[in-house]
Amino acid sequence: MESLEPINYHYEKLYGQGENAADIVLAMVPPDTRVLELGAGPGSITRRLRAERGSRVTAVELESSFLPYLAPHCERVIQANLNETAWVAEVGTERFDLLLAADVLEHLNRPQDLLRACESLLAPEGSVVVSLPHIGHAVIHACLMDEDFEYRDAGLLDSTHIRFFGMKNMQALVEGAGFKVVDAGFVSRAPEDTEYADRWRRAPEDLRTAVLRNPHAMVYQCVLRAVRVTTPGEALDLMSMAGHAPRVTPLMHVNRLFKRMLPVGLYRLCRRAYAAVMKT
User: Fold this and answer.
1) For residue 260, is pLDDT > 90?
2) How far apart are CA 204 and CA 199, in angstroms?
3) Does residue 134 contact residue 165 with C-beta atoms inside 8 Å?
4) Which of 239, 158, 243 is nearest to 195 (CA)?
5) 229 in Cβ contact with 180 (< 8 Å)
6) Where are the domains of the chain?
7) Gyration radius (Cα) of the chain, Å
């Protein structure tokens, strides 16, 4: 077992990094609840659920090397492939207050089928919390204009992503599984603070101007909370929610400078080192 978790599975908040999707996820989890966490990875968010929210977690994860990291923070760990649904029967009669899929559904062949299958595992008043990357971010338009849809190890175009979601697609994903959105939070990132900042700098001014007219152009990740469609109350329309301006910290300004000055390989190495030593 390696001593360090894979960097693209970290959810700890790093000093100076700005907004963090995990913080929004945790704010949507009521205290002292039973949580079924799908695709829990090495437990980066699992440990925060237990420590900060007092959650009693059952985790579902396929990768064997992650299980030792997960086990200390869970009541139970089920090793299973989320592209299949046979594992649902293994849960037995237990029902959960909350189903969590944090940056998971974009990796699956049929994510809506998974949400449908898990509906039976929720308690009567249970809810679903999902975080998803937003493919409509402004910087992706710059990549397309550059004719280079470049996959990377992490981020909006993570090489393991096989599903991509705009706001309307996220809404349809949830509603098609029998749920309705009742709460939403956004992580905003200026194009200069994304992994494709260089593409944005090279994009024509008229393209950048047009793209930024989209009220969701700065939305990098979305966190949604949904309940069964039969639950009383109005559904939230994601398209009616405008994204907010990104919060840019002093350290993020330094990061922008490093992106300009350093060769790509050296910059990525520095980012990994920073993430390893600057956890808060």
Assistant:
1) no
2) 10
3) yes
4) 158
5) yes
6) 19-245
7) 19
Tell me the per-residue pLDDT of 167-198, one tens digit each, with 9 for 90 and over: 999 999 999 999 999 999 999 999 998 999 99
Residue 119 near residue 99 (C-beta atoms within 8 A)? no
Confidence of residue 9 (pLDDT cuts 50, 70, 90): very low
* Tokens, residue 127: 């809810």
Contact criterion met (CB below 8 Å) for 181 and 234: no
Topology of domain 19-245 in CATH is Rossmann fold (3.40.50)
Contact 181, 231 (CB under 8 A): no
β-partners of residue 76 are 58
Contact 30, 205 (CB under 8 A): no
The residues near 144 (Cβ < 8 Å, ≥ 6 apart) are none
CA distance 270 to 273: 5
pLDDT, position 161: 95
Q: Is 146 helix (H, G, I), strand (E, B) or coil?
A: coil
CA 218-173-77 angle, 5° bins: 100
Dist CA 191 CA 185 (whole Å): 19
Coil, helix or strand for 182?
A: strand
Length in residues, the chain: 280
Q: Which residue has the tokens 């913080």?
A: 23
Show the tokens assigned to 128.
């679903």
Indicate the residue type of 137. H
| CA distances (Å), origin 22, targets 82, 84, 97, 274 | 21, 26, 19, 19
Q: What is the largest CA-CA distance in the chain?
A: 57
CA 270 to chain centre: 23
Q: Are 153 and 159 in contact (CB under 8 A)?
A: yes
